[in-house]
Write a structure and sequence with these properties.
276 residues; alpha/beta; 7-stranded mixed β-sheet; two-stranded antiparallel ribbon; 8 helices; globular
């Protein structure tokens, strides 16, 4: 169902190239199961907030959004834009470079994403900032960038769930990452807009950003629980590193005071937050 006034985003040459590559690749790697695309078919900007379970998520998410008639603008690691081929494609498809360092550079990325939303475009962000380290593959504690974007204007914030891509390309293992056979279902599901009405007219301070960060990640987690048919955890996994650089997992309750850095680290783990 298409909402009144909606018109599909137009392709350019680079977008047509990405479609020619990614449509058949995603169909070959897994059985695409796309649900809820009507949530994106609206005549306004949309902020899509997604969980992150595999390096393949951005590719499937890009196809999902394009098949809904929209073109996704991912927040992609800025270093990719300096690469000869990837950088050309990223610029040609109007992706948003993100400086991982906090400070003024990060604010420029947020400003670019806010401008894209104000212009009626679709912006996709992974609030965790990396592929989940949660042992059960549930969403981790979010960073604050998604909440800052969500509160920057009055547009829908749509939760998006990825499930299945982690079985095709397994993250965090050195051998046997790629397992396309036997073919598996790769599900991408959008839910209804997250209700942020209680925060729209309030001052945007640290508490509001914390609350909205957790509200967004909780909505994604709960939608994932529906897709998986499981009871979700009541805490968010937190990735910590020891002095030796080893990953240490902790769990924090959803009412934790610190939602994470305000820099927009909503890119994919490998920086491939855009179709490149």
């Amino acid at each position: 169902m298409t909402k009144s006034g909606f018109r599909a985003d137009k392709d350019n040459g680079w977008i047509l190239l990405c479609r020619a590559l990614f449509y058949p690749i995603t169909a070959a790697l897994g059985r695409r199961k796309f649900v809820g695309q009507q949530e994106l078919r609206i005549p306004s900007g949309v902020l899509v907030v997604a969980n992150h379970i595999s390096h393949l998520d951005p590719v499937y998410d890009a196809v999902y959004v394009r098949k809904a008639g929209r073109w996704p603008h991912f927040m992609a690691k800025s270093s990719l834009f300096s690469k000869p081929i990837a950088g050309t494609v990223l610029r040609g498809t109007h992706q948003i470079p993100v400086e991982r360092a906090a400070g003024g550079a990060g604010q420029l990325s947020l400003a670019a994403a806010t401008a894209a939303l104000a212009a009626g475009q679709v912006v996709v962000i992974y609030p965790e900032g990396t592929i989940t380290r949660d042992p059960g593959r549930w969403p981790m504690k979010p960073k604050a960038g998604a909440a800052v974007l969500a509160l920057s204007g009055d547009f829908p914030v749509i939760p998006l769930v990825n499930w299945g891509a982690h079985e095709v390309f397994v993250p965090y293992v050195k051998k046997g990452q790629f397992k396309p056979l036997p073919r598996k279902d790769v599900r991408v599901i959008a839910g209804p807009p997250i209700d942020l009405s209680a925060y729209r007219s309030q001052p945007i301070d640290a508490r509001a950003i914390r609350d909205v960060s957790l509200l967004i990640m909780s909505a994604v987690r709960d939608l994932l629980a529906e897709v998986r048919g499981e009871v979700p955890p009541t805490t968010f996994f937190v990735q910590r590193k020891t002095a030796d650089g080893d990953n240490l997992g902790l769990s924090e309750s959803a009412d934790t005071d610190d939602p994470g850095s305000s820099s927009p680290e909503g890119t994919a783990e490998d920086g491939s937050g855009a179709p490149s």
